[in-house]
């Protein structure tokens, strides 16, 4: 009944499949993300529609959900950081769910091949990091150090590593509409140059990285497809274009357990620590050689040195092994560290309850 839908039956079926599969992979979608995706599709195909600026509203969303009863809309439960603490049971369940998902997709053999298991994440590098304590007279209070660059400037870098110890070319993101020539010519030929208004990773820059940097690197090295790419759910920026690309090309995206990236993400556990240690050393050496500040124009050559020194196959492999990703083993995780954090959170909750009781008693 009624007029035809703006999107075809096939297009809506594709949206339904995207929403369901994205949720199963650990990336549930916000309604605004769906509306944004439809807007991009309509602007691309230039199809007439009744929407303002080609973007559907609440009525369209309600009717879309009515047409696709497999999808439901629920309010997210807001929980405190203490309640969101990670448990051993939660971590082991994540390992089991990933294994079951790969078996369902007939791809369980990926877990036995380190060259097909990847972890990607972004990190920020300060142009003026703290380089440690300084030496001087014992009773002299005014210890100053000339900043090597804008004190609060932070440049985003996206990196991807495999369990085999390989590192895909990174992408560095700058807050520009158009990358200045001086910065562009400073990049290694195979590195990615990203740009966004904020200088942070966005859906568009993440898509560019996968399509133009990561995927060509995979194909050039003749790595067997499909591959598994583990991502932090808070930073993955998975749009419909990226989902379709990865599905077609054999890149299986899967979300790491929320609030557990410090335990399960090799990038955080080992590699980024190594990069930042060497970055601080490069900055320290730079200060000794010149008084010139580290700027966006001079960042890449210096960071390249830190990246090459900090990213070693042994360090990458150690991260995957410590996280239990490869070899795939939930028992490899340091659960004592998890328990320590749980006990700390319990103590904080107990202390807060006692303080609240004392305050209420005084008020009475």
TrEMBL record:
**One GO CC annotation, please?**
nucleus
Q: Name one Pfam family in it.
A: DDE_1
Q: Which GO terms describe its molecular function?
A: DNA binding
Q: Look up the signal peptide feature and give its range.
A: none
Name the UniProt key words of this record, in alphabetical order.
DNA-binding
Give start and end of each HTH CENPB-type domain.
Answer: 1-74
* Gene3D superfamilies registered for this protein in UniProt: Ribonuclease H-like superfamily/Ribonuclease H (3.30.420.10)
Tell me the domain of life.
Answer: Eukaryota
Q: Per its record, how is this protein called by name?
A: HTH CENPB-type domain-containing protein
Q: Native species of this protein?
A: Rhamnusium bicolor
